[in-house]
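Section 5.1 Outputs to date
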Amino acid sequence: MIFRGLADLRGIVCVFSLLLCLLGGTFPAMAARLKDMAEVQGMRANQISGYGLVVGLNGTGDGTQAEFTIKSIANMLERMGVNVDPKNLKTKNVAGVMVTAQLPPFAKIGQKVDVVVSSMGDAKSLQGGTLLLAPLKGVDGKIYALAQGPISIGGFAAGGAGASTQKNHPTAGRIPAGASVEREVGFPINEKNEVVMSLFHPDFTTVQRAVDAINKKMGEIARAKDAETIAITVPPSYQNNVVGLMAAIENVELSPDQKARVILDERTGTVVMGADVRISKVAIAHGNLSIQIKENPQVSQPQPFSQGATAVTPQTSVNVTEQGAKLLVLDANSNIGELVRALNAIGVTPRDMIAILQSLRAAGAIQADVEVI
């Protein structure tokens, strides 16, 4: 459940109370597919990047201070058989950019992937620009894709001497399907005798439930190596057909377990509490202290022809208001719904709730991992 700084806490609690009534005051565990909780080790995307030039800009390219852009243009023209003096080149219609992309697992030669183009120099906008052919390399220095095409920045930037306007970020954009895969990253999954899966959120209970669910459906082929890792032995009937095995396993449903956790974001006044949070029997009192200080300077003018000086006398007004605190008692093992209703009863705001939850943690009265971000 999320409470934001300007949200109507009472309205949220009404919805919470209705849900508690409908669910009988409990939060039943929801079944999820294993594919939504884990991934196969080794089956991942690979980052590739490269340097390129964007041309066709309407005077919004790099300035003369971006020497790498000037040298890049001169080198490119020289490879095309055109010899020019770099001192005579103007770069206002050209920008040097970095091109990045992710090579998805099992990507094949000729497959198209999206690329992100980001300015490196002092270009004002990439609007209307076209990326020239740019090789994209991996960490091993080999070329895995070639990128080229018109850039979409999803916004604009315009201005004059006295005013300017901008929408989104004009110095970075995307080229949908802008790169063509030229080299494959091998992952021969059908040749494996064992497949390892890793949970996104390590948990001993969840990993054991996953193992039990897999073995119930496929036979005794899975074992837990730790709180995160599941090792699956490929049975003889699925040799050279690991894809079929994984298709059956990834759709196994189970109820994930999780630690009781409370996340507090003091910068935005956001509180996120899990359904398993429990409160020990505790009394809570919370009151607000408001101090208002006003300065009303009084000016004293001298009499005419008295040769006196004008004097400023400060007048300070201090007003202190303390709201009466209400005392409430929570029974042992109170759940999140009861906690929210109780805090709403004393009229706390989300930021007040952050202070109260921190105090509950200090008192050892909350059974949850309280994390402040």
